[in-house]
Amino acid sequence: MEILSSSELKWGIKEIDDQHEALFQKVNQFLNICQRGRQTQEIIGVMSHLEKYISVHFEAEKDLMEKYQYPHRFSHVAHHTKFREDYSDLKNVFRKEETTLRFAMLMSEIVSDWIIKHVNRADRKLGIFLRERGPTS
User: Fold this and answer.
1) If we measure between CA atoms, which residue out of 53, 54, 31 comes closest to residue 43?
2) Mean pLDDT throughout 17-32?
3) Phi and psi dihedrals of 35, rounded to 5?
4) pLDDT: is 59 or 133 the higher one?
5) pTM (2 decimals)?
6) For 34-90, how does the pLDDT look when each residue is reduced to its tens digit (9 = 90+)?
């Protein structure tokens, strides 16, 4: 099973579009690893990449929201904060259990939920706002 990126999620801002595409690729990689069974080192690599992604991507979005005075920026940043907390909890489960079925299901649930609810909804609204008022490079 793969989660494919959607052209509807393209903002027309290369930096953000590239970051979203990288997220989809890493989530697809994680799902493929889980289908193959216990691959602890590969999962550690994916989780490390996602942690870096979270930091870089959330800061990039925050900077754009502040620069262009996005009216929903505070709730958007609150979503980011909640995801960071969920991801931290997920890392704690992984430290204790490594590649258990419970961990794989939790990882899939958290990341899939994030893509469906945040990227597909909140980020889409932000993307529309920025296309109307922001950069297009």
Assistant:
1) 31
2) 80
3) -65, -30
4) 59
5) 0.81
6) 777 667 788 888 888 888 888 998 999 999 999 999 999 999 999 999 999 988 988
Reported as a single tens digit per residue, the pLDDT across 89-110 is 888 888 887 777 788 788 878 8
Pairwise CA distance, residues 43 & 127, whole Å: 30
Distances (CA, A) of 88 to 50, 51, 84, 91, 112: 11, 9, 6, 5, 16
Q: Is there a contact between 47 and 91 (Cβ–Cβ < 8 Å)?
A: yes
- Residue 35 near residue 24 (C-beta atoms within 8 A): no
Which 3-state string (H, E, C) describes the chain? CCCCCCHHHCCCCHHHHHHHHHHHHHHHHHHHHHHHCCCHHHHHHHHHHHHHHHHHHHHHHHHHHHHCCCCCHHHHHHHHHHHHHHHHHHHHHHHHHCCCHHHHHHHHHHHHHHHHHHHHHHHHHHHHHHHHHCCCC
| Sign of torsion over alpha carbons 22, 24, 25, 27 | positive
